[in-house]
Amino acid sequence: MRAIAVTPGQQGSARLVEVAEPTAGEGQLKVRVLRVGICGTDLEIDRGEYGEAPRGQPLLVLGHENLGRVEALGAGVSGFSPGDLVVSSVRRPDDCPQCRAGQQDLCTKGDYTEHGIKGLDGFMADFYVEEPRHLVKLPESLARAGVLLEPLTVVEKGLREAWRIQERMREWRPARALILGAGPVGLLGAMLARLRGLQTTVFGRDPSDFLAERVGALGASYVASLDAAGSVAMPLAALASHYGPFDFVLEATGSAEVAIGAMGLIGVDGVLCLASVTGGEAMMRIAPAHLNMELVLGNRVVFGTVNANQVDYQAGVEHLAEAARRWPGWLESLVTRALPMERVREAFERHPGDVKTVLEVHPS
What we know:
Mean pLDDT: 94
Number of strands: 19
Low-confidence stretches: none
Shape: globular
Distance between the termini: 18 Å
CATH superfamily of the largest domain: Medium-chain alcohol dehydrogenases, catalytic domain
Structural class: alpha/beta
Helix content: 25-40%
Number of domains: 2
CATH topology of the largest domain: Quinone Oxidoreductase, Chain A, domain 1
Largest sheet: 7 strands, mixed
């Protein structure tokens, strides 16, 4: 069968290959892959920055943002039928206490594996096999947009944890949300904030009419940091005075400068969720005493989140379906490029205006 694989550590090695087609064993399902999303993690693995093949194998099949249909059921499988629309979770546990408790997203040991990333083949292939407990079913109304579920779960977890943290107060009535970053995670974060009824501001880099329209369709506001000439139109530090105070801030830019700057945008008793992974060793100037004073005196919270739990997948299905009813066509509009597997190198190139690029494995 066809698959998109890399040689880990080798720059620009993502390519179409032929691998053995799997068969569902006892207690497993075989899934026909429909669409696979491409994200920054896939691009970084293709650049050779990280990625780990399954033990004893030279290649790693890429892809963790998945959508497929059940093709066949192995012996002993119940609760699923051929044709069911499904998404698989990504991380598999090790033997640490958190993983044994079903919270591999909070793994303390670090020996977990992840499909398409670390030690397990991913979903950029014609088929895969999986155990039922790692799959979630989707309604047919999400037959196109369901590929967004996995990236949505990262935001689902962030909001779930933020609201849980805020149970420290007997009463918390958040009114305003700030989303830093207008990529897929940021836009999906804005969607969740609007579903919670929050007045929402999305802060992106470019003065894009498309982004302004997509954000506006949710009843939120889009603010660009740059103008058409590339000059600063809205400094990060000015956001709170213009659009705040913010009760909840989600940072999803991948910029360490923005992540640190976001700490100064939290309102009193507010919470900041850092959802992006920042790399590099660039130095920056901050005023630590002032930042510390603001965090302490304002009872502000800063925390990070990565990966997701099965409960976040279930919540994501419900929220995707709710968003599809409330804003018809909005989710589908986030997929700005859909290409066949044979054009994988083109799919891995960044184009102006890209939001989400997907590979159509079995378009149906």
